[in-house]
Amino acid sequence: xxxxxxxxxxxxxxxxxxxxxxxxxxxxxxxxxxxxxxxxxxxxxxxxxxxxxxxxxxxxxxxxxxxxxxxxxxxxxxxxxxxxxxxxxxxxxxxxxxxxxxxxxxxxxxxxxxxxxxxxxxxxxxxxxxxxxxxxxxxxxxxxxxxxxxxxxxxxxxxxxxxxxxxxxxxxxxxxxxxxxxxxxxxxxxxxxxxxxxxxxxxxxxxxxxxxxxxxxxxxxxxxxxxxxxxxxxxxxxxxxxxxxxxxxxxxxxxxxxxxxxxxxxxxxxxxxxxxxxxxxxxxxxxxxxxxxxxxxxxxxxxxxx
Length: 306
Hints:
Layout: H1 6-11, H2 16-23, H3 27-30, E1 35-39, E2 42-48, E3 51-55, E4 61-62, H4 75-85, H5 94-99, E5 101-104, E6 108-116, E7 122-131, H6 144-149, E8 153-158, H7 164-176, E9 181-185, E10 193-194, E11 197-198, E12 206-210, H8 214-224, E13 229-232, H9 238-249, E14 253-259, H10 263-268, H11 270-277, E15 283-287, E16 296-301
Parallel strand pairs: 8-14, 8-15, 9-12, 9-13, 13-14
Antiparallel strand pairs: 1-2, 1-7, 2-3, 3-4, 5-6, 6-7, 10-11, 15-16
Helix pairs in contact: 8-9
């Protein structure tokens, strides 16, 4: 029997009818799969970089979701799937229900759609998105020399499903084989720790901080691990920006991802403008998009750099 795959892991959390149909899907149709999406009373969707297909009971994938004989999920089945994700203890998963996602072994992130309560947790779930994490060793080979040669750091930019996390992970692998590196893995996708050990190769010298916010992890790494580089995913709020600026002021170089498809979009967001104006990053890397995840479209020298 071969090693358990991400596909196998996802099947283990599915409602029985969906799981049985997924197990009938041929190996060819599992290759390149990026997401499995469930919606209440709608067909199960298989998402690939260039197409969407819908699951039939026999395991074939259809191009249209309008066929009546497709595998749909009921509201009660969605609730049972969330309960399984919570290891049958919903009340012990307050953090996940507030953030709106679970992280499974192998770095699989399961996004939740539902209704937020006044207490800030989610209920009445109507959708689940199982997002598969994958490593592509070598995809950051042309970016690493720019990171190693810059004074500050590299900001990896792209839209949804453009491969930002994939590129950052591989960049961390190369950097961590050569420099003291700290990886802040807030969502558990980058290293995918299991029992304290990373599932993905993130470098021989890389220390991994997980289970906290990005800003908390950055400050902890600066205080205790004396890194040359700090890596983090999805810079978003003011606390992230402030922590990166503080760390950069201490002489630490950063590699981070940012949701922006172009330089204009990067500058249109307050946190992006602040990171650029403070001189925190020398280089911005822009990715092609969801049609070719992890592929670099442009490497732009930021105007503040020497």
